[in-house]
Amino acid sequence: MRIQFYGITLDLPDEWEDITDDLPNKGPPTLAKTSGVGALQFTIARYSGGEKPNADFDVPRSFMIQFCQNNHIAAEHISTQKFGNIMCVGVLSKTIDKILSAWYLSNGNDFALATYLALESRLVIKELEEARAIISSISF
Fold first, then answer.
1. Which among 37, 59, 60, 93 has most CB atoms closer than 10 A?
2. Chain segment 57-97, per-residue pLDDT in tens
């Protein structure tokens, strides 16, 4: 189902829902699968005025390098993709007990950071695939 979500548009698979209002202390916009093991959170910055950024892949890539440094993730795991007019720079990090995947997305003027964090389980592979599908469907 295609939905509007805090200033972005995305395809939301069955069993995924907006759990933002259920989070303590008014957390960031968050999606989770009803019977899932992780959560997909967003930070969204929409262009609102002034000089347009007109960013290329270097900008979200530099954001991701900083994210990796801040979170002790090897930067050589960074990947880049394009979904229509949306640039996507992502990284995946696995430890013994958790999986973190993060993506910076931009259309050149608007930006979003999406992070998926889950405890390691047999369900996480399918759920991460669904999170990736959500990411690839995003438009501003």
1. 60
2. 999 999 999 999 999 998 788 999 999 999 999 999 998 88
Q: Using one digit for the tens of pLDDT, what is the confidence trace for 4-21?
A: 999 999 999 999 999 999
Nearest to 7, CA basis, from 130, 120, 116, 114: 114
Q: Are 90 and 101 in contact (CB under 8 A)?
A: yes
The vertex-82 CA angle with 130 and 93, nearest 5°, equals 50
DSSP state of 12: -
Residue with tokens 């999986």: 99
Are 33 and 127 within 8 A, CB to CB?
A: yes
Of 53, 51, 46, whose CA–CA distance to 138 is shortest? 46
Say how far apart CA 97 and CA 43 lie, in whole Å. 25
Tokens read off for 76: 């050589």
Strands (E), the chain: 2-5, 8-11, 16-18, 30-33, 38-45, 79-83, 86-94, 98-106, 111-119
